[in-house]
Amino acid sequence: MIKIIFLTDIHDSLKELKTLLEITKADLYLICGDILYYAFYDLEEVLKFVTLQEEFYSYIKETNQKLDPYDLATKILRDHQTDIHSEMYIKSAEYRLLFHLAAKTMKEKYSAIEEIIQKHSQAQCFVLPGNYDIDLQYTALAKRNLHKRIMYYENLTLAGYGGAPILTSGIPEKLAVPYLEGGKGKDFYSEPYEFFLNSQPDIMVLHNPAYGYFDKVPHYGNIGSIGIRNYLDENFPILTVSGHIHEDYGIFLNSKGSIFLNTSNFGTVDSFYGKMEGGTFAEIYIDKSTKKVHNITIRRLKDKNIYDFFDVKFSYSQKPGYIIKRLKHFDSFHLDFEQFIKNQEFYLY
Fold first, then answer.
1. Total domain count, the chain
2. Residue 322 β-bridge partners
3. Whether this model's pTM surpasses 0.70
4. Which of 13, 81, 184, 326 has minimal Cβ neighbours within 10 Å of its Cβ?
5. CA 10: distance to chain centroid?
6. DSSP for 89-140?
7. pLDDT tens sequence across 117-150
8. Distance CA 114, CA 299 (A)
9. Which domain CATH number covers 145?
10. Looking at the domain assignment, is residue 65 inside a domain?
11. 9 contacts 266 by C-beta, under 8 angstroms
């Protein structure tokens, strides 16, 4: 049996990540995006950067330019060298300085995470960038980066696609992972669809979910990837894990025996419902001989203690289904249990 520990959206919870690696054991750890939350150590610098970034985005929209804020700031500095005391010139210079400070700070944080993994984990660990991250290929986590890569563990093939089709305030926009999907009808193109079609993984690791699978945002509806959904309608990996959407979480087993999982945020975040406490993670057990998920245990790290909520055991004979076993701390489960199991038919004991 292969044991995988899966967590997503750790959002700068480095102390909690360290604790988790210290007190758990697994064959493989999967961290599914939004590794960081802030691009600066100082919240005042976060506010300055976000304010300038949003102002530049507004200016770009008003003037109908095809630039990002960094390129706009560069253009203003280049084109207005004789007017260095103008407000836009000063803001552009400040934006570029903050942009480079953000990149430096984020790389320092990734280096700290790599050090934590090396020191406290005896197992392999793969990571994926989210929309709160920069491209990991330029960081200390490059060798663990699953974005647009295929990796192997035992007889399992894993492939990942990170990022999300959203502009995230406070993150250096030019350094984020581009999410290449868009268009309508015959003009529709999806890089994630092509990537997974070529890689055909047993386990799909996503930050942004597929359309219709744990992708519902309050007051907005479904925002997941159409391309990935198209792939999953035609192909049936044994397991698809995702993150990004903190409010739409759970386990789902479809009629083809494919399992979908989003454990919600591991790090504490602000959401549509207010502050969402984190700590939730999953232990996934995969039978090497059948290449099927045998069971998944939902657990939580809180105050350096592990809380066991429930275990889901899967059956693949005739109609796929599962049995849920209450564990020691089931009654203190902090998420919505009925939402977690998506009102599917199951036996609970």
1. 1
2. 314
3. yes
4. 184
5. 9
6. HHHHHHHHHHHHHHHHHHHHHHHHHHHHHHHH-SSEEEEE--TTS--GGGST
7. 999 998 999 999 999 999 999 899 999 999 999 9
8. 24
9. 3.60.21.10
10. no
11. yes
